[in-house]
Amino acid sequence: MENLSKLNVLMCGTGEYTSGWVGAGASKSDKKVEKLAMVGVNGGKFPAIRAHLEDNIGKVYKDMDLSFDEYPEGGKVDAEASTHYPIAIYAIERGIHVLVTKPATQLLKHHIELIEAAKKHNVVCFVEHHKRFDPVYSDAKARAATLGEFNFFNAWMSQPKSQLETFRAWAGKDSDISYYLSSHHIDICCWILQDIAVPTRVVASAATGIATSEPYNCVPQTEDTITLMVDWQSIKSPKHKGTGVYTASWTAPLKAGVHSAQHWYYMGEKGDITVDQAHRGYDATVDETGKTWYNPFYMKYSPSESGHFDGQRGYGYISIEKFVDAVRSVNAGLSKPAEYDKHGLPTIANTVLTTAILNAGRISLDEKRPVGIKRDGDQWILE
Prior knowledge:
It is a single chain. Helix content is 27%, strand content 27%. The protein is an alpha/beta fold. An 8-stranded mixed β-sheet has the order 13-12-8-11-10-9-16-17. A hairpin with a 6-residue loop joins strand 10 (225-234) and strand 11 (241-252). The chain is globular. The model has no long low-confidence stretch (mean pLDDT 93).
C-alpha cells in the first residue's frame, strides 16, 4: 500500500467527533493523506479548533502535520455545509469516495439511494461503524456463528446527562438518542445475524422528562431513553424466531467512571455471550475525579517511546484505515468497490438493515404502532 497514491480528504462537520472540540473547549469524551480540509456550518470555530489541535496533538506527538483548509472561510456561517445524506449523495454523484458516520441516514429510502448511487458511480462508500473492528466484538461474532439459531439479544448504551449540553443544538430536533447510540449495537447485531436471521417487526418505547427540564431545556419532543424491540426470523428455519432489545439513553448519571456505558448479551440455540465494552479490566482512581475505566483498545492516546503517535492499533483508527486502504486500492485499479461488500466490512450495502430498524423505530414512536420490515424484490421496505 505504500506505493499507492495518497488521498485528498474533506471532513464534513467540525464538532466533537470530527475535531474533538466543543464550544467549551476540548471534548471530555474518550474519543494516509496528502491534503486535508474541514467544512462545517460555522467558520468562526476554526481558530479555536486549530488551537485545540495544537494543544492536544501538536504539543503531544512529534512530527504531526496539523494543517488543513477550512470551509466556509473567513468566519462565515453556512447552514447547509454539513448534513449527512445531501453531502454524501452530492459527493458520490461526482465520483468521490465517501466514509459517512453512523447512522448513514435516518430514512431507509435515503440509505437505498446511497447504495444505488455508489454502485452507479463505482465509488467506495463505508459507514464508520468502528465497533466491528473491536477485537472483542469481532471475536464474539465468530463465536456466535457456532451457537446455532438466534434466540435473544439485549444491548444497553448510555452517555451522561452532560452530553445534552453538547448536543442541545440538534437533540430532539434533527435526531434522537436511538439514532445516535443504538446505531452501534443494532449494527453489531445485524452483522452477527448476517446469513442467520432477518428483522421483521419493530416496536419502540421511550422515557421522557429529564432532557426537557432544567438545566438542559431541550425541545419538547426530546426523548431521554429509547428502547426498540425487534422480531427476528431465522433464514433457514421457519420455526426459529428471535428477539432483539436495543436501549439507548443520554440521561445517565454523571461521574459514572465511563463516558459511554455499554454492554450486550447474545443467546443462541447452543450457548450465550456477554460483552461489557465499558469495563475492560483497566481502571484508575484519582483524588479529584474518582474512578475511571479506560478503553485503550479504541485508541491509545499516549505517545510512543520516540514521542510519536502510537494509536495505529486501536479499532477507532483501524475503522478509518480500512476505508482509506480500500479507496487507495480502488483508485489504483487493484480492486473494485463491490468486492468489499463480500468481506463483512461496514459498506453502505452491508449496513442497510441497521438503518431499516432505526427508521422503523422512529416511525413506531411517532405513530404509536408496530412497523414491519420486509424484502420486496431486491430491496428492503417498511410497512
